[in-house]
Amino acid sequence: MANNPAMQNVNVDPKDLEHTKAIVYSMTKAERENPDLLNPSRRRRIAAGSGRPVVEVNRMIKQFNQMKKMMNQMSKGNFNGMEGMLGNGIKGKLSKMAMNSMIKKNKKNKKKRMKKNKRR
Asked: Compositionally biased, Basic residues: which spans (predicted)?
């Protein structure tokens, strides 16, 4: 992550990673592949299996869904409103400067792709 300039300002506590890993390892393969299966009783089972509170399992699932939404928007080139989404999950935020550089980079790449497609 340190090689990515956009991720330089993200602070992740190793304990948080261990907790997340415990939660994920307590899920079945089907639950990992399709988080929509996670009803309240499954979430309680995962919490018990990982030794974490249900609130933490819910928080992780919420963060996952936010990241999924953000990645979908980014893949479509839609960066509007991204700054607000990034602060709720992982401890730390992408700085506005890093976000702006990502936007500029995406615009440059988009222009290159358009030129390349015109040549064909």
From this structure: 104-120
